[in-house]
Known about the structure:
It contains 9 helices and no strands. The chain is mostly helical.
Amino acid sequence: MRNALLVARRELGAYTRSWLGCIVVAAVLLIDGIYFYAFGLGTGAGKRLSSDVLFQFFYGASGTTMIASIILSMRLLAGERETGTLVLLNTAPIRDVEIVAGKFLSALTVIAVTTALSVYMPLLIFVNGKVSVGHILVGYFGIVLLGAAALSIGLFASALART
Length: 163
């Protein structure tokens, strides 16, 4: 497990040093904010129940999270193969399972942090409405699980891709 965490730390550093991680996080937060304002808080439809606003937020956030997961997972193994560093990674004293787990954990951390940064949007519902904190926590847990599922599919596709 220690080797997987080393690979995850290396990948997290790559996400923070490259423009890909910054652009993906900024784009997801921007699109989530616009979607929340337009469809969740939109005043054109009249008054809405707080649960409907929360539903609209999680509906929009699920789509952006899935797209971000796929974008982040595209470069995990295929990018290593393209740059020629996969040979170095395979010759290191690390098993293949630890390589895949580390890369998955790093991308999942980026998805979880991005999701956590959007927590202010559902908290805005408390200004004029009532919603249970449990509903918000379960919704965020579902968003992270959805991101993990899309990430695992993208990682599988990245492993199969030939460059």
